[in-house]
Design a protein that fits this description.
The protein is α/β, with parallel strands linked by helices. The protein has a single domain, classed as Rossmann fold (3-Layer(aba) Sandwich), CATH 3.40.50. Strands 3-2-1-4-5-6 form a six-stranded parallel β-sheet, with helices on both faces. A two-stranded parallel sheet has the order 7-9. Strand 2, helix 2 and strand 3 form a beta-alpha-beta unit. Helix 1 packs across helix 7 and helix 5 crosses helix 6. Belongs to the avfA family. InterPro entries: NAD(P)-bd_dom (IPR016040), NAD(P)-bd_dom_sf (IPR036291), Polyketide_Oxido-like (IPR051606). GO terms for molecular function: oxidoreductase activity, acting on the CH-NH group of donors, NAD or NADP as acceptor. This is NAD(P)-binding domain-containing protein.
């Protein structure tokens, strides 16, 4: 498949690119700063780099030419705390991306989310409630952006085959195995390797099990 990967210069995004290449896909990466990509990726013939902003419709349209699916590792950096913008910038970017996806007939969207995005299948969990509350208090603007992303994908992307891959606390473990389910189901746990996120996201390209859904995934 020919894939557009967003958020490709971050830790999860780099793993998404690597996983996609290993699976034999070709990749378009839309980035503001191509120099943040490793030299090996900048010179890889299977990778096309499009430089620009996600809010620029022409740039997004260029990146979407011939694309079969969009995978996104976009997420607000919680560590910025009170310094993260209050105007939900990533949700606004997603609005443009989804609009241009529809114009180009691209249906499949697999997007990073977090436990801050609620789902009707979730049940009460003290652990996850504490995690979400901590983010909502100490990184409120980032929390708002994540929640807005979830709402926007569900509303504006209603005619897309979208999967919001919700993640808990991310680690750098190499383990790719994951458990997929919902908060409070007794299966999912509060940690997940970034490698697991990348692997699960790529698997969704050939499965419709979670299409139109927002599973929370964790390490076993």
């Amino acid at each position: 498949m020919h894939l557009l990967i967003l958020g490709g210069t971050g830790p999860c995004g780099l793993l998404l690119i690597q996983e996609a290449l290993e699976a034999g896909h070709t990749v378009v990466v839309l980035v503001r700063s191509p120099q943040k990509l490793p030299d090996s990726m900048r010179s890889d013939p299977s990778i096309t780099i499009v430089e620009g902003q996600l809010t620029d419709r022409d740039t997004v349209g260029k990146a979407l030419q011939g694309v079969d699916a969009v995978l996104s590792a976009l997420g607000p950096p919680v560590k910025k705390g009170i310094f993260y913008p209050s105007d939900t910038p990533l949700a606004h970017a997603y609005s443009v991306v989804i609009e241009v996806m529809k114009t180009h007939g691209v249906k499949r969207l697999i997007a990073l989310g977090t436990a801050s995005i609620k789902d009707d299948h979730d049940k009460h969990s003290i652990v996850f409630a504490a995690l979400v509350s901590g983010v909502a208090i100490f990184a409120h603007n980032a929390y708002k952006d994540v929640v807005a992303i979830g709402e926007l994908i569900r509303a504006q992307g209603v005619n897309l085959d979208s999967t919001i891959v919700r993640v808990p606390v991310l680690t750098n473990d190499a383990e790719k195995a994951v458990v997929a389910g919902y908060i409070g189901d007794g299966k999912v746990k509060p940690k997940l390797s970034r490698a697991g996120f990348a692997s699960f996201s790529l698997q969704q390209l050939t499965s419709d099990e979670w299409a139109g859904k927002a599973p929370l995934i964790s390490s076993p």
